[in-house]
């Protein structure tokens, strides 16, 4: 079994078309078809059901596809690892992070890393912790900054706690502060308040809703479904208040009033995650070190 054969197999599986797959991998279509047939002979099973104008995966093909993707991702990582041995002058890092971490934590750290290693490309995948864990598992990311606890804990991943960050309430400067203007707002003070809420699957949404329910009430949303920048914009416009990480609120700057939450408050734990069976590439390990030492 050759890497080239797996690359051709994945291309056909993704395009469901031999000619388009050949174009995608820059090879003649007869050569691609020959390599696929050779792979099928070696495995002793057909990988595709071939009907005129309709290419589908067999059960064997379905079983091979995630494994082939992981093997190709690991081979690509190995190639970059070797290239990076020359004093980290080249290579890339595939880093996943939740949107709020991208807004609050990453800009300063990535600027410092880029200043030190300008030849390394930074590829950022912004998504929720659940999606990032899946991408780590299949080898599509080198590192991910996720919120603990993970939605689906896995022994295949190693996590290292990075920081524990408190959450604050942001509101429009013209709007009254919930709780009668006290220096700190209690979660109970949010009952009956208009909340601007993140989309489903957002870690902050789940944390805020759970905190409100623990106080015995369902939160009232005036706007919901946004990403971080949208939520902050809606708050600035006076559509309601929102619970966000302190780093995000601090970086957001003008146009927002920031009020702490009264003790015990709300917190979230951010961790660095990577696959347990494969060490991150050298450049990713250097970024990991900078994040842990920040």
TrEMBL record:
<dbReference type="GO" id="GO:0032993">
    <property type="term" value="C:protein-DNA complex"/>
</dbReference>
<dbReference type="InterPro" id="IPR005119">
    <property type="entry name" value="LysR_subst-bd"/>
</dbReference>
<keyword id="KW-0238">DNA-binding</keyword>
<protein>
    <submittedName>
        <fullName>LysR family transcriptional regulator</fullName>
    </submittedName>
</protein>
<dbReference type="Pfam" id="PF00126">
    <property type="entry name" value="HTH_1"/>
</dbReference>
<feature type="domain" description="HTH lysR-type">
    <location>
        <begin position="1"/>
        <end position="58"/>
    </location>
</feature>
<comment type="similarity">
    <text>Belongs to the LysR transcriptional regulatory family.</text>
</comment>
<dbReference type="InterPro" id="IPR036388">
    <property type="entry name" value="WH-like_DNA-bd_sf"/>
</dbReference>
<dbReference type="GO" id="GO:0003700">
    <property type="term" value="F:DNA-binding transcription factor activity"/>
</dbReference>
<dbReference type="GO" id="GO:0003677">
    <property type="term" value="F:DNA binding"/>
</dbReference>
<dbReference type="InterPro" id="IPR036390">
    <property type="entry name" value="WH_DNA-bd_sf"/>
</dbReference>
<dbReference type="InterPro" id="IPR000847">
    <property type="entry name" value="LysR_HTH_N"/>
</dbReference>
<keyword id="KW-0804">Transcription</keyword>
<dbReference type="Pfam" id="PF03466">
    <property type="entry name" value="LysR_substrate"/>
</dbReference>
<keyword id="KW-0805">Transcription regulation</keyword>
């Amino acid at each position: 079994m050759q890497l080239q054969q797996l690359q051709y197999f994945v291309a056909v599986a993704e395009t469901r078309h031999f000619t388009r797959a050949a174009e995608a991998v820059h090879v003649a279509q007869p050569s691609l078809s020959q390599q696929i047939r050779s792979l099928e002979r070696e495995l002793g099973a057909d990988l595709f059901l071939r009907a005129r104008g309709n290419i589908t995966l067999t059960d064997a093909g379905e079983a091979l596809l995630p494994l082939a993707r992981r093997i190709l991702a690991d081979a690509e990582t190995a190639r970059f690892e070797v290239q990076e041995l020359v004093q980290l002058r080249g290579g890339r890092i595939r880093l996943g992070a939740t949107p709020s971490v991208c807004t609050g934590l990453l800009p300063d750290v990535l600027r410092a890393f880029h200043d030190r290693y300008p030849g390394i490309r930074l590829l950022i995948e912004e998504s929720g912790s659940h999606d990032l864990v899946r991408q780590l598992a299949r080898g599509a990311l080198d590192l991910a900054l996720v919120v603990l606890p993970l939605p689906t804990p896995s022994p295949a991943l190693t996590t290292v706690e990075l920081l524990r960050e408190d959450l604050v309430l942001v509101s429009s400067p013209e709007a009254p502060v919930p709780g009668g203007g006290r220096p700190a707002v209690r979660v109970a003070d949010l009952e009956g308040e208009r909340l601007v809420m993140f989309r489903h699957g957002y870690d902050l949404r789940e944390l805020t809703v759970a905190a409100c329910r623990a106080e015995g009430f369902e939160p009232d949303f005036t706007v919901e479904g946004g990403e971080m920048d949208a939520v902050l914009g809606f708050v600035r416009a006076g559509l309601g208040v929102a619970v966000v990480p302190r780093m995000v609120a601090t970086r957001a700057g003008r146009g927002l009033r920031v009020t702490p939450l009264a003790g015990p408050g709300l917190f979230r734990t951010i961790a660095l995650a990577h696959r347990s069976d494969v060490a991150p590439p050298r450049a990713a390990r250097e970024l990991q070190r900078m994040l842990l030492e920040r």
